[in-house]
């Protein structure tokens, strides 16, 4: 499969907010900034000569709002609304928005919205979804690396580092377990020990002291056994 690269435009009348989105786009391996605009009129004119797959669009702007802009665009790319107000959320989806992000934007929320856009792009171009919509990005060797959650077996704490063990390989990143415990979906992943978070779908067997994933035994904290039983029974 060819690497997906969505051409993006950022529209926001706040220079600070616009640059924060641009930075997130530049850090994402599947996105490329091709245009920045500070109002809807400038955007409408600029898009006449610029091909764009995805627009990160503010709503409240001088003269014309983000909604006004979309009403005037004959060919609409994918839209992710980025706004400081929650009151427009219902209306936003009347415009077939991919997502609606509330400012200030954090990286996890941004990446989740982008994942939806990538999946829709793949559906439109190839008629099939991407390999797995659910993934996270981790920084390894100064690069952002995509980790598909369905391929992740477990992560292990190693001092100031975290080791990722996937179906294909193993790598280490500078991070904390707590940061990934908050990112990973709680219905799919469980912290079974102070040093281990496991993919519940990969658990093959367990007893009062250990669980087994792909013939490898990992320690199970005594007070986590009830949580494990409950989590596995609800899958």
Automatic annotation (TrEMBL):
Residues 154-234 form the HTH LytTR-type domain. The keyword Signal does not apply. GO terms for molecular function: DNA binding; phosphorelay response regulator activity. Residues 7-118 form the Response regulatory domain. SMART domains: LytTR (SM00850), REC (SM00448). Keywords: Phosphoprotein. The modification 4-aspartylphosphate is found at residue 58. Signal peptide: none annotated. Pfam families: LytTR, Response_reg. This is Response regulator transcription factor. The lineage of its organism: Bacteria, Pseudomonadati, Bacteroidota, Flavobacteriia, Flavobacteriales.
């Amino acid at each position: 499969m060819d690497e997906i690269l969505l051409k993006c435009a950022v529209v926001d009348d706040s220079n600070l907010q616009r640059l924060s989105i641009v930075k997130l786009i530049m850090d994402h391996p599947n996105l490329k900034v091709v245009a920045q605009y500070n109002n809807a009129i400038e955007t409408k004119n600029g898009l006449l000569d610029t091909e764009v797959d995805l627009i990160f669009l503010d709503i409240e702007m001088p003269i014309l709002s983000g909604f006004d802009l979309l009403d005037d665009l004959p060919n609409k790319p994918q839209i992710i609304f980025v706004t400081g107000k929650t009151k427009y959320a219902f209306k936003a989806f009347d415009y077939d928005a991919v997502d609606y992000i509330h400012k200030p934007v954090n990286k996890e929320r941004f990446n989740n919205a982008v994942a939806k856009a990538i999946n829709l792009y793949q559906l439109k171009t190839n008629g099939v979804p991407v390999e797995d919509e659910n993934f996270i990005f981790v920084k390894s060797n100064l690069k952002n690396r995509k980790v598909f959650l369905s391929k992740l077996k477990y992560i292990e704490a190693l001092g100031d580092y975290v080791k990722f063990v996937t179906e294909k390989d193993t790598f280490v990143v500078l991070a904390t377990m707590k940061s990934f415990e908050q990112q990973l979906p709680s219905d799919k992943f469980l912290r079974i020990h102070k040093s281990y978070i496991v993919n519940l779908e990969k658990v093959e067997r367990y007893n009062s002291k250990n669980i087994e994933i792909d013939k490898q035994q990992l320690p199970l904290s005594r007070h986590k056994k009830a949580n494990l039983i409950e989590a596995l029974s609800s899958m």
